[in-house]
Write a structure and sequence with these properties.
InterPro entries: Glyco_hydro_beta-prop_sf, Sialidase_sf
Number of helices: 4
CATH architecture: 5 Propeller
Keywords: Signal
Largest sheet: 6 strands, antiparallel
Strand content: 25-35%
Structural class: mainly beta
Helix content: under 10%
Number of strands: 23
Number of domains: 1
Radius of gyration: 20 Å
CATH class: Mainly Beta
Protein name: DUF4185 domain-containing protein
């Protein structure tokens, strides 16, 4: 996608920043209705010199410390009949966050990744993006990594298989992102494993998937986003489980044009959560469970229930993912904040076709144990974090700083402290950068 670049006069940009700054600083003692016993943290955006990331980013930033080296894995890899075959999933390493994020594109290293399987045969199909890296704590060397990846396919790369129910039927298929007549993609979420710190990867299988009956087709799907599916995940480990927060874009039931309801569609969408035992990452397919409204009981390819506090009500502009008006949060990036002692989630906001949206939001969850009761659902109502009118903002994340504390604690986008650097992508400009540090207060 290549929308026209849109710039605001400097004075207008400063006004927008000031408004966003004051909107994003709730009083420390304010209580939230979502979590009654939780005092909502305050936060402020501290402007900095622009920190440009020097390579292609189109996802959450997957990263881990391998020994004393911070390693990041941005980019895209694999077959894509719309955008072309990609070989941009590479890694860079450094002694601290500033060093690795400043790495020039030509210094990135291409790991060995599994090849795409022929159409109709088992194996890896479509393109992948690494969204989170889980570092196996059972390996003291830190070299055993599990990459949670976003995977996109089309009826051309993954045609429907009636024996397995996997794949898609090219009939009434909705249009995708480009200005050309091209099909919409369907995301899935899978797992790869490396035992050498990210140099070589083996595909282990799927984490979550929505199948053909849940695809939202013509004439109703005119959003130019996805046909359905699950994607854009962020995963955190708690105890014996890996908890996956992800975007849900499918219909919460069997889509039929004759009985389609936009209200029903929207009720099953937004940001959802599933979990899998860490011991099952070696062979994940069929092992994960989605939250079903009461517990982690829905199947990996079944119908779960989204986090209701993150859904946007219709009266506030909420709507289904297939709508040209949008109206939903997506692209979660979750971290544990050691200073606040709570979870922090950043997310995007779709308010038009082709993932248009100029705002990023933040939410908090005070419960360290996401598996107890309904703790995984106890997120505060999203607050505006930043807005850039005239632009399209994707993939927000909090990143460690080049400080002695962050280096000693080996902080990553999954674990941070009082201050963190905010990165996000200007999709309309094709750049991933940081203009602010976020500073939290209890």
């Amino acid at each position: 996608m290549a929308p026209k670049n849109t710039f605001l006069p400097i004075r207008a940009q400063m006004l927008v920043f000031c408004l966003a700054f004051f909107a994003c600083a709730p009083k420390t003692q304010e209580k939230t209705a979502d979590v009654p016993d939780f005092t909502l943290p305050s936060f402020r955006l501290v402007p900095t010199d622009t920190f440009h990331f020097n390579n292609f980013v189109d996802c959450n930033m997957a990263e881990a410390w391998v020994g004393d080296t911070l390693r990041i894995f941005p980019g895209k890899y694999g077959e894509d009949p719309v955008w072309g075959f990609a070989e941009d999933l590479k890694f860079a390493s450094g002694a601290n966050a500033d060093e690795v994020f400043s790495t020039p594109a030509e210094k990135y290293i291409a790991p060995t990744l599994p090849k795409n399987a022929p159409v109709g045969q088992p194996g890896l199909h479509g393109a992948v993006w690494f969204e989170t890296v889980y570092q196996d704590t059972r390996d003291p060397s830190g070299r055993t990594l599990f990459a949670i990846y976003h995977n996109e396919n089309y009826p051309e790369t993954l045609p429907f298989n009636p024996d397995t129910g996997e794949g898609y039927i090219n009939e009434n298929w909705p249009l995708g992102l480009t200005d050309r007549i091209t099909p919409a993609a369907v995301p899935r979420i899978g797992v790869m494993k490396s035992t050498d710190g990210g140099w070589n990867w083996e595909n282990k299988g799927l984490f979550l998937e929505d199948k053909q009956p849940r695809m939202i087709l013509k004439p109703h799907n005119i959003s130019k986003t996805f046909a359905g599916g699950v994607g854009d995940p962020s995963a955190v480990a708690v105890g014996d489980y890996l908890y996956l927060f992800y975007g849900e874009y499918g219909y919460p039931g069997v889509y039929q044009a004759s009985t389609y309801s936009p209200v029903t569609e929207a009720s099953g969408q937004c940001i959802s959560v599933a979990r899998i035992k860490i011991s099952d990452l070696e062979n994940p397919q069929g092992k994960a469970k989605r939250w079903d409204g009461k517990g982690f009981s829905a199947d990996w390819d079944g119908i779960g229930s989204p986090i209701s506090s993150l859904q946007i009500p219709k009266e506030k502009g909420g709507g289904p993912a297939s709508s040209p008006q949008g109206g939903f949060h997506w692209g979660p990036s979750v971290s544990w904040n050691t200073y606040l002692e709570c979870w922090v989630m950043l997310m995007g906001h779709v308010e038009g076709q082709s993932w248009i949206g100029d705002k990023l939001y933040i939410s908090f969850n005070p419960h360290r144990d996401l598996g107890e009761g309904s703790n995984s659902q106890a997120w505060t109502s999203p607050q505006l974090l930043v807005q850039k009118p005239g632009h399209v903002l994707w993939y927000p994340s909090l990143q460690p700083l080049n400080t002695a504390e962050d280096i000693a604690e080996k902080n990553t986008s999954l674990k941070l402290g009082k201050r963190a650097r905010l990165f996000f992508k200007y999709s309309d400009l094709g750049t991933y950068l940081s203009e602010f540090i976020v500073e939290f207060e209890k």
